[in-house]
Design a protein that fits this description.
This protein is mainly beta. It has three helices and 32 strands. A hairpin with a 2-residue loop joins strand 26 and strand 27. It starts with 22 loop residues before the first strand and ends with a strand.
Length: 474
């Protein structure tokens, strides 16, 4: 993978600070390695997260890298990925967003035995969809992701758009101590009942950056991946008009983001087309202003002084080819409803313990339809819904809490129909739906992938503290 030259650096920002490093993907014509070539090893490692000249941080990493090795597959072609566990605890890998067989989904106890220390597991699947995806553990996920286990996975389109560069920005946040160590106390009960473990350090591709190099007149495809445990981002590109062409790996109608802000919750991916129409030699801020009062400059788009490579934006379509998703029959679809409950300041009574009687595990402060399932997934989970294979389903998701929740559904992609009674435009499909407090979404899908599938909040503190359920397709 080709890396852009770093143009400048600035001091690490704390509590809402962030820095980016752009990494150019292989040229569009490049082919993925043979499936046998992908070997992913989870093991302790060290990474210089806090910038040049700062101490290295002890992390857990795939193949010694933070983020893990970039995996590039081809749509419709079999893939084989060997995962080896060199940690002192069990792990798995979940291939987030890919519609694959249930036995390859990486949920310990539910879809596979956990990978014990010193053992390995071979994941085999044929990705039906092109797009931007990622991979991460689904065992002790709060700590394993929080210590660095995450990587990007891209499935190539058969007919990719015409761009000058294809860039990948993997955004991660970390909670570091003054000594650049990863802070302990994962699963703090107060944080679990609120916004989760939001870090104090933001990196992109595991490194810090003050500015990213661009050339006036070029067209860039920018793939954003948020691997944070809890941080939600709202990105603004000063002086530019990014066009969203895909969400969670699934193409949408090309459109500019609402109010110019690109919302990127944990586990979400957004693909942008950027026509670089800035002035040569000038810099433009990329700002994250999601959290009130904590707006900060994430990085800068730094133009070199060379004249534009073209006078006008590239005259080529930006729309991506659609993936072979089954279109739900809304007229005949069966309807179901799932309500998110609990957390601090909730009206549901969860904090009093009144809903925990039917839950699994201990320490649940969140629930879905009154049932709290804690942890990462395990044997014996009873489904909230059992769906007949091949049926179209309309699912109403109600957020009856005071907090944001990126709700992720395994094994399927969801057609987003409405938000709070208003139709959602742009033909959006997502596997992770970001819900604001009191939001009500209607989503639809065809239950065509048999098995037991997790549906959970991807603020990992929320998931492990009870906001998780199971949908069975049989």
């Amino acid at each position: 993978m080709e890396s852009n030259r770093l143009m400048s650096r600035r001091d690490l920002l704390r509590v809402g600070g962030g820095l980016l490093l752009a990494a150019a993907l292989p040229p569009v014509a490049a082919r993925a390695a043979t499936p046998e070539a992908y070997r992913v090893v989870a093991a302790p490692a060290r990474a210089r997260l806090a910038g040049p000249g700062r101490p290295e941080t002890e992390v857990w990493a795939y193949n010694g890298k933070v983020p893990g090795p970039f995996v590039r597959l081809r749509q419709g072609e079999p893939a084989r990925l060997l995962v080896e566990n060199r940690l002192d605890e069990e792990t798995t890998v979940h291939w987030h967003g890919i519609r694959l067989p249930n036995t390859m989904d990486g949920v310990p106890g539910l879809t596979q035995p956990p990978i014990r220390p010193g053992e390995s597991f071979v994941y085999e699947f044929t990705p039906p969809d092109a797009g931007t995806f990622w991979y991460h553990p689904h065992a002790n996920s709060l700590e394993q992701i929080g210590r660095g286990l995450a990587g990007a996975l891209i499935v190539e389109e058969r007919e990719p758009p015409t761009v000058d560069r294809d860039l990948l920005w993997v955004v991660s946040d970390w909670r570091l101590t003054d000594g650049e160590r990863i802070a302990a106390r994962f699963g703090n009960s107060m944080e679990a009942a609120m916004s989760g473990r939001v870090g104090n350090t933001v990196t992109l591709n595991g490194r810090v950056s003050g500015a990213e190099p661009f050339r006036a007149g070029e067209r860039v495809r920018l793939r954003l991946v948020n691997t944070s445990l809890a941080r939600i981002m709202a990105l603004r590109f000063e002086g530019h008009r990014p066009v969203i062409v895909a969400i969670d790996g699934q193409p949408s109608d090309p459109h500019e983001p609402e109010h110019g802000r690109i919302l990127l919750g944990p586990a979400m991916r957004v693909d942008l087309i950027l026509d670089m129409q800035g002035e040569p030699g000038k810099r433009y801020d990329v700002v994250d202003d999601f959290y009130d009062g904590l707006s900060y400059r994430l990085t800068q788009l730094a133009y070199d002084k060379e004249p534009p490579i073209r006078a006008q934006p590239l005259d080529a379509p930006v729309e991506l080819p659609r993936n072979p998703l089954p279109e739900p029959d809304l007229a005949s679809a069966e309807r179901h409803s799932l309500t998110l409950q609990g957390g601090m300041m909730s009206m549901s009574g969860m904090m009093g313990g009144g809903m925990m009687g039917g839950g699994m595990g201990h320490g649940g402060v969140w629930a879905i339809n009154g049932l709290s399932m804690t942890g990462d997934g395990h044997a014996g989970m009873e489904p909230a819904l059992t769906l007949k294979r091949g049926r179209s389903v309309i699912l109403t998701l109600r957020n009856d809490t005071a907090w944001w929740h990126p709700m992720h559904f395994h094994g399927h992609s969801l057609r987003v129909l409405t938000r709070n009674g208003v139709a959602v435009p742009h033909r959006q499909w997502q596997d992770t739906v970001l819900m604001a407090p009191r939001d009500v979404f209607e989503v639809a899908f065809v239950a065509d992938n048999p098995g037991d599938w997790m549906l959970h909040c991807h603020v990992i503190d929320h998931q492990t503290a009870g906001m998780m359920t199971l949908l069975r397709v049989a």
